[in-house]
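Appendix B, Record 12. Input sequence as logged:
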Amino acid sequence: MSADYVTFSKNVFIPVTNICRNKCHYCGFRRDAVHPEAFLMTPEQVDKVLRRGVFSGCTEALFTFGHPGHHDVIDYMAELCQMAIERGLLPHTNAGAVSYADLKKLKPLNVSMGLMVETIGWVEAHRDSPDKVPALRLKAIKDAGRLKIPFTTGILVGIGETWNDRIESLLAIKKLHAKYGHIQEVIIQNFLPKPNTPMAKHSPPTIRDMQQTIATAREILPQEITIQVPPNLMPPQLSIPYGASDLGGISTETVDHINPEREWPAVNELSAMGVSLKERLPIYPRFITAGWYSEEVGELVERYADENGFRNDE
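Logged structural output:
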């Protein structure tokens, strides 16, 4: 293993809704509002998951939602984030390509936020997805920097992009971080085909392709930005030697709703692989030191963080 240790966070994954106006050709999660499997989680359903997370020792509530095209979803998300804080979990919201005003509204109630770049190149897979226009996503990430929101982004590998698209996407992330200093981690995520989608028969990237992309990301991005590769999508022993040093959120209570067929590995399983693990919060240590968090989440940050900004042993 190339890293002295690999970080991860313990979370619960809460997909608030699967209703989405985008129709990404690789996505098996989204539904139209009239589809019988469409849902919007109720506060009671969310609270049940939050309580399970607290009971199992999680620190993070990972909120995701589609792009239903309604402004009131941001107000609802704010209410759910407040609920998470009251239960004792630190919210991290993947809010999509939302406006500066929406990010500003959610900032005090989130310890960090995220939005994948995916690719800044044009791909057929995004033809029917108005929120996947690269300029919109880059603007949202820029706005997060202006607001000093610790941020997670990344690229999706194997959706029809070229090798040059991957490089240009990483360079765009690097440029934004150089100006605002807010990127805490970059996810290198491999596409996996889903049944009943336009890309169901599209081949995923090879392990070698992923390793080359991880190594390239490590070369392009500054060292303070961590490279994350989800351990349920690629075995850590195959990604860590090439520059990955974070596994993202690992949940004992909830599945990966985007890739439900891929179970999270247990922490003890990862340790058995020879991976030296260190638990972190959804906000990285350097942003804790810099005070990039609000009063609303401050009590929880200080309760959970040790003197170095990682998860304490209490």
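The chain has ten helices and nine strands.
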